[in-house]
Amino acid sequence: MFRGVLGKTLGLVGLTVQYGCIAHCAFEYIGELVVCSGPSMEPTIIGKDVVFSEHVSRHLFKIEKGDIVIAKSASDPHMNICKRVIGLEGDKVCTSSPSDIFKTHTFVPLGHVWLEGDNLKNSSDSRSYGPVPYALIRGRVCMKLWPPHRVGPMNESPTGRIIQTKPQSDWD
């Protein structure tokens, strides 16, 4: 009898470990559901919206300007942030607020991105803490899943702060 109970227990532990490994790989390399909170991405993402964050783009270095990303906070590694990519490495970005008379600019360093919230007046972002290392990006938000009346792909930035640049080869 003891052997039977031990065998079933070990079998259950084995299945739990297998499914745990599968779940870990899915959440780490494929994607995850994220509940967003806070006003920094309004009106694109409103508090308690549920989005799907895919992780394949991050691993393939396919994050582009205009993408909304989930990243680890540089100041608190236990917290994630949801922001829009405004600039990639080498890009010149505006660091001042839209209402400033004199505009200031900086260049995004190698291996970093410039992140800003869509609600510029109520967002703590790269304008306050600087460029974010690419390695802190967890995934790219590709779809809103909740609430039901707002399900669909993510829309473009309402701020108009994304400046599309031509690839170097097109400048000839």
How would you describe this structure to a colleague?
By secondary structure, the chain is an alpha+beta fold. Helices cover 22% and strands 28% of the residues. A hairpin with a 7-residue loop joins strand 3 and strand 4 (80-88).
Which descriptors would you attach to this protein?
172 residues; alpha+beta; eight-stranded antiparallel β-sheet; two-stranded antiparallel sheet; 22% helix; disordered C terminus
Layout of secondary structure:
Layout: H1 2-30, E1 31-35, E2 50-54, H2 56-59, E3 68-72, E4 80-88, E5 92-94, E6 105-107, E7 112-116, H3 126-129, E8 132-133, E9 137-146, E10 152-153
Antiparallel strand pairs: 1-2, 2-9, 3-4, 3-9, 4-7, 5-6, 7-8, 9-10
Question: Approximately what portion of the residues adopt beta-strand conformation?
Answer: 25-35%
What oligomerization state is this entry in?
Answer: single chain
Low-confidence region ranges: 166-172
The topology string of helices and strands comes to HEEHEEEEEHEEE
Distance between the ends: 80 Å
User: Count the helices. How many?
Assistant: 3
Structural class call reads: alpha+beta
Total strands: 10
Helix fraction, binned, reads 10-25%
> How large, in whole angstroms, is the Cα Rg?
20 Å
What is the residue-averaged pLDDT?
83
User: What is the approximate shape?
Assistant: elongated
Sketch the major β-sheet.
8 strands, antiparallel
In short, what is this structure?
The protein has 172 residues and is of the alpha+beta class. 22% of the residues lie in helices and 28% in strands.
